[in-house]
Design goal:
- This protein is an alpha+beta fold.
- The chain contains eleven helices and eight strands.
- The strands form three sheets. The chain has a four-stranded antiparallel beta sheet with strand order 1-2-3-8.
- The N and C termini lie far apart (about 65 Å).
Length: about 350
């Protein structure tokens, strides 16, 4: 009764209506004449893109800092500790404002952009870089690369199965690297080996051509990665410390150097402790990406807010947001739980 009194429509029919607003960054074709459903899809892709890159960057940085905290070098260990304590105790929203301010205020204007040869330019408008011109050869190369990744993964599993059955170790790194390089290069060569690039050119008030990373995207990615890396570093450190010291001693007795001890003895056992809290950090990073609305990055929440303001369909828009974030969280949990099941210690 209240909804009808206020002439507020109920339902998801608004998704098929024309959106009528621009979205600054898109990974698929979009213009204001598209529907609200299309606009929300663009926002979802933006959220998934920054979250995926953030997870990769935070994992690499957090692992390095976590190992550094256990370093025998006093300076390295203390610097890693200072980083962890500093980043964990400053709110992420404030860090995003700082990164965005640094990019937009300290970087030069477009006409004085920092040039990396003729292929990339860094300015207050973000990073503009050269990109290969459209060609069937590049599509074939991309699909071939995906196939090479699958073959490398299959070879890795076959080598591990062979080692468990016979004790013989097959080389994994070099054959996998050969597959990942040789097959895409062969597809690129067979497609005519195109080398033409769409190079950015200064025209008017901004660069034209190439691809670009906006200041909002860069600030969000850096903020999410550096903030979450501090928590991942503690997770990694705790996992390494949980491995009994006798394991490292036994590895030393076998003549393994420090890198091999960490990669072949310590980390495989530490993963059983690391994965559960690491999953939580991945979920936190994905959900924290919704703070993008504060610095103007058009993620799912930003697009949903615009949709709500224009249509008044607040209940439906909030329901879509809840369903999407729930689905993403469950998908990440499912993948990480599957990986945890693979590396867990199986007792006889």
């Amino acid at each position: 009764h209240n909804l009808s009194t206020r002439q507020i429509q109920v339902g998801f029919g608004f998704l098929s209506r024309e959106a009528g607003f621009e979205i600054a960054e898109t990974h698929v074709a979009y213009d204001p004449s598209n529907t609200y459903g299309r606009a929300l899809w663009v926002g979802l892709l933006n959220t998934l893109w920054v979250s995926a890159l953030g997870i990769v960057a935070a994992t690499i940085l957090g692992t390095l800092i976590g190992v550094a905290r256990l370093s025998s070098n006093w300076l390295v260990a203390r610097l890693a500790s200072v980083y962890v304590e500093f980043m964990r105790n400053i709110p992420l929203l404030l860090q995003l404002f700082v990164w965005y301010g640094l990019i937009t205020e300290l970087l030069p204007p477009v006409r004085e952009a920092i040039a990396f040869g003729d292929l990339a330019f860094l300015s207050q408008r973000g990073l503009r870089y050269a990109w290969p011109q459209a060609s069937p050869a590049w599509s074939a190369t991309g699909w071939t690369l995906a196939g090479a990744v699958a073959l490398a993964f299959a070879w890795h599993r076959l080598a591990r199965r062979r080692q468990r059955a016979t004790g013989a170790q097959w080389p994994v790194f070099w054959p996998s690297l050969a597959l990942l390089v040789a097959l895409p290069v062969a597809a690129w060569w067979a497609g005519g080996a195109p080398t033409a690039l769409d190079v950015p050119q200064l025209g008017g008030f901004d660069f034209q051509g190439g691809r670009s990373l906006s200041p909002e995207f860069i600030a969000l990615l850096v903020g999410l990665s550096t903030y979450t890396a501090a928590f991942i570093a503690e997770v990694v450190r705790g996992g390494i410390v949980s491995v009994p010291q006798g394991q490292a001693g036994a590895a030393m007795a076998l003549g393994l150097n420090r890198v091999r001890r960490l990669g072949r003895v310590t980390m495989p056992q530490a993963l059983r402790v690391i994965i559960p809290p690491l999953t939580s950090q991945y979920l936190n990073l994905t959900k924290n990406s919704s703070l993008a609305v504060a610095i103007g990055y058009p993620d799912l929440v930003a697009v949903a807010n615009t949709t709500m303001n224009q249509t008044g369909q607040a209940i439906e828009a909030i329901a879509i947001l809840m369903a999407v974030y729930l689905a993403i969280s469950l998908a990440i949990s499912l993948l990480m739980n599957g990986y945890a099941a693979r590396v867990r210690l199986v007792e006889r």
